[in-house]
Amino acid sequence: MKHNFGAGPCILPQTVFEQAAKGVLDFNGLSILEVSHRHKDFVAVMEEARELVKKALNVPDGYTVLYLQGGATLGFTISALNMTRGGKAGYINTGVWASGAIKEAKIVGVDVEVLASSEDKNFSYIPKGYAIPSDLDYLHYTSNNTIYGTQFQEQIKTTVPLVCDMSSDIFSKEINVSDFDLIYAGAQKNLGPAGATLYIVKEEVLGQFKTPFMPTYFNLAKQHEKESMLNTPPVFSVYVAMLNLRDLIATGGVKAAEERNNAKAGLLYNEIDNNPLFASKVAVEDRSKMNVAFVLKDEYAGLEEAFNKTWNDAGIVGLKGHRSTGGYRASLYNALPLSSVQVLVDVMKEFATKNA
Ligand SMILES: *Cc1c(COP(=O)(O)O)cnc(C)c1O
To answer: Which residues pair with 139 in a beta bridge?
Structure first.
């Protein structure tokens, strides 16, 4: 049995893996991999997958849910193109993914103003206390910074249209969707397998873009009109997302997931703070509950190889930090059980007993 702390594609519930495997072999007599996306059985899957997002996140009326392709990376472009009104857009730069969103918005001609950045300290905190001009076309931020282990603990409050890349913390905690005009997220961090990208969009912003460049696929108004079936959707990914959302709702929904996630993160941060070998470099108030970044203290840097062997031997996978930060990163997505976190904590404790 492996304990998968990987940052993405991520662990999903075992029951979801089993049902997905069954669907590959038999989905009403065909394989889910060969069924036409226009067949009523798949249309029903798409409808349910969209509806379950609304149910799980209490999405109010007046919002549409879409499953597109291209990952969150294409979401950088799609969000910018659909939200630009020909004026200025504000961005908060909290790391590699936020920087990617800034870069792609500029490529498609959006006039970007970076309102705040935590680059001065290698993105180890969430910027605070900056002004938000009231005439922005929109404000974009990244709710959870997968690589650095920082997370906005509160939604940004603003009167300007709000856009958020929620790839790595969507469905991990309750959110207030009505505060946002556009939310997007790659499926592979908490929703399903790679291949689908989720968009939750306020219907009144659809078609309001002011840009000379709008390929049909990127136009969310068209995607909405075609009920997320403008072309062949990522059939398998949407199917597994539907299975996972059913499981999420059956196990108490996002509220219960949030409680479990709080317990997991609490257990691990408590160990990091009390273990003599390890430290967190992230501002305490900005710590992510999804991606926990930590390091061996400088004076114990020589123990790296020995520690790597120890957690490998315990069946832990995916604990290595991102190549840009080094150290360790334990991703605690919804499907990771508390018992896996306990295994990691026990490994850290025992390693300290032997080496500190
Ligand atoms: C992983 C990730 C991305 C990139 O997602 P892709 O689907 O691979 O394009 C973007 N933003 C955040 C916050 C991420 O965690």
So the answer is: 90, 162
